[in-house]
User: Fold these one by one.
Assistant:
Number 1:
Amino acid sequence: MRNSKLNKTKLSNINGLRLLSEIYKAESLKFASEQLGISVSVASHQLSSLRQYFQDPLFFKSKNGLSPSPKLLALLPKI
C-alpha cells in the first residue's frame, strides 16, 4: 500500500511538471490542459499546488497570456 501512495505522488509530481511546461509553451492554462487531456479545473488545482510547493506564483498574467516568473524560468531547464 505504501508503494501505491508513493507511485501516486511521483505521478502527480510528473504531471505537475508537464503542466508547467505546457503552460509555458501555450501561455494559457486552457490550451495546456487541452494538450494534456485534463480539465481546466484539474489543471488549475495542480497549478495551485505547485505554487504552494515552490512558494512562487510561477506565472503572471500578461497581454499575451501567462508569462513565467523568474523562478519558473530558472526551473524550466531542469524540467
Number 2:
Amino acid sequence: MQNNFYSSLLKTKSKILILHAEDDWLVPIDHSKDLTKFLKEKRFKKYPEVRLVEFHATFGLSHNKIYTHKEVYPLIKLV
C-alpha cells in the first residue's frame, strides 16, 4: 500500500503541503521528513513545490490536533 501512496504522490501535479507535529505519538516526524525529501528528489522538477511544516511539541498538537492551531489555515492559503 505504501508504494501505491508514494507512486500517487509522485504523479500529483499540484503543490503538496505536509503538516506534522513533533509530539505525534503515532507517526514519527522522521516519516514526514523522509517523505518530503523523497518527493523533492523524485518528482518532476517542473511540478510545484513540496513543503513540510513542523509544529513544535510545545503546542501540544500531537497526532490529531493540528487543525486546531491558529496558523494552519493561513499556511494553507499561502501554499
